[in-house]
Amino acid sequence: MATETAAAHGEEGGLVFHPMDQFIVKPLFGDGAVHWYTITNATLWMALAVIAIFALMVLATSRRATIPSKGQSIAELAYGFVYKMVEDVAGKDAVGFFPYVMTLFMFIVFANFLGLLPMSFTTTSHFAVTVVLALAVFLTVTIYGFMKNGSKFLGLFWVSSAPLPLRPILAIIELISYFVRPVSHSIRLAGNVMAGHAVIKVFAGFAAIAVISPVSIVAITAMYGLEVLVAFIQAYVFTILTCVYLKDALHPGH
Amino acid sequence: MEGQLAHIGAGLAAIGSGAAAIGVGNVAGNFLAGALRNPSAAASQTATLFIGIAFAEALGIFSFLVALLLMFAV
Amino acid sequence: MATAQGDGLADATGVAEHAAGSAPGMPQLNFDHWGNQIFWLIVTLVAIYFILSRVALPRISAVLAERAGTITNDIAAAEDLKRKAQEAEAAYEKALADARVEANKIVADTRAEIQADLDKATAKADAEIAAKAAEGEKAIAEIRANALENIEVVAKDTAEAVITSLGFTADAKAVDAAVTSRMKG
Question: Which GO terms describe its molecular function (chain B) (predicted)?
């Protein structure tokens, strides 16, 4: 049945809803086709993320208080958290990339947490989104690496500490792992978020059966707790890997 | 028939998730063992821990993805 | 995915509803929607980037720097105040010691003064007492002398009165002589 088109899903289903339905991109107004400019539910939740970030980072800090309010404390905490990460992992000369890394971190964190609201749409569960994020990092690292280091950037693939006969083999492995980076970088985030949400939906589907429903509800609660953790950890992991890759661009060679 | 085979394949691919769980547990367990031997160095290595977990988990996510593709896309 | 389920599921409300032109099983792999998401994602990221890099981050950085400055100043001020407090304590200790020395001196002086006064008063009192005693003795001596004299007079008068009452005429000169000689005897 899975080979059939989606139109068949509705009729065949024993489950009252399909676990993957929550990820469907729909136009927000009307039922028309989704063009590139259409305002969809993805647009809505991205806009909400922007508003939330604006509220936290701009409105909450508008008083510029020396003794911060709660909101300002959180904004400062986020600032310090990402700034320290960039400085510690990518090095002191990478602080120029700090606004960029901060943008990625704030967007992913807010998209993940907004996606945990019931009935919401999780933008970061889509490969379209995470692939763009990961490719942006990949291209930044590659272009900046070549701009700053020139051909020395290729030293990243030439492991000079290894014995000479091994080096070409290692170079191939390094090259492959370098190009797999954006793949794993993007799929890790989308996969984690999607998997968690889908599992919650699967349990929610079982909740309709009276006998299983208590177990199901407990399981949903537990999964939700795990997802809250995952939402933050995946944002953290995405950001810290960005910093690790930036370090390669700034200081190639092992 | 072909659909059923895809489902079997998806189930087999899902084993990879369990393998990733072993990997993640290995990373975290070794970190804990090291941290208990030298607690003062543990705090500075949490970033490494998360990176390690992320790499171990990524491969599990790949197998999960393969399962999903077999289920829905093939 | 969903195969035959129990009746519980079948009669549960609702049937899965799919939007028109919905994706195959995984909406993530519906490439028709990628353009839309990528476009809006880029808009979102640019918006966030400008919010953060133009407004939020400089502001937070300024606040943090200002706070660090304030804390440094406060610590310096606290050090200053601590030093002042120590100085004040030292001054206080010194004043206390001085005051104690002074007090001891005053006590000693006062004691000496009082002692002198006391000695003077005692001496004066002694002198007065001595004078009074001398005066008293003189008065006693006078009284005694007067008394002796009076005794002679009384004795003569008495002797004359006795003689007269016996019926004799008293010879004053003889009585006086007799009394005087008796008194002396």
Answer: lipid binding; proton-transporting ATP synthase activity, rotational mechanism
